[in-house]
Amino acid sequence: MVTVEFAPALQRHVNCAPQSVAPGTLREVLEAALRAAPELAHYVFDDQRAVRQHVAVFVNRQLVQDRVTLAQPLGDGDRVFVVQALSGG
Asked: How high is the pLDDT of residue 16?
């Protein structure tokens, strides 16, 4: 299974406990995890289903660069962490 966790900054809008979902592409994994809290999807994805600019996705502590296709394959034991990205100076 793949573990998907949403940071507290996102959970303040919609509570979603860490999810264990079947392996697949990053998109499939995120979509499966968001089924537990569908209201959270519009905080993560834009209207084209790309990851929003203010959201960062990490797989095994590595920042995901592909915010559109999310085609990276994930396997058993992988961990996904979705956070609200910070900007400013």
From this structure: 86
> What are the backbone angles phi and psi of residue 18, rounded to the nearest 5°?
-55, 140
Is 42 within the bounds of a domain?
yes
CA atoms within 13 A on the CB side of 18: 9
At 68-85, the pLDDT tens digits run 999 999 999 999 999 987
Domain at 31, CATH number: 3.10.20.30
For the chain, how many structural domains are there in total?
Answer: 1
pLDDT above 70 (res 53): yes
Residues in the chain: 89
Pairing of strands 19-21, 2-6: antiparallel
Tokens, residue 20: 């264990």
The closest alpha carbon to 45, from 55, 59, 35, belongs to 55
Mean pLDDT of the chain: 93
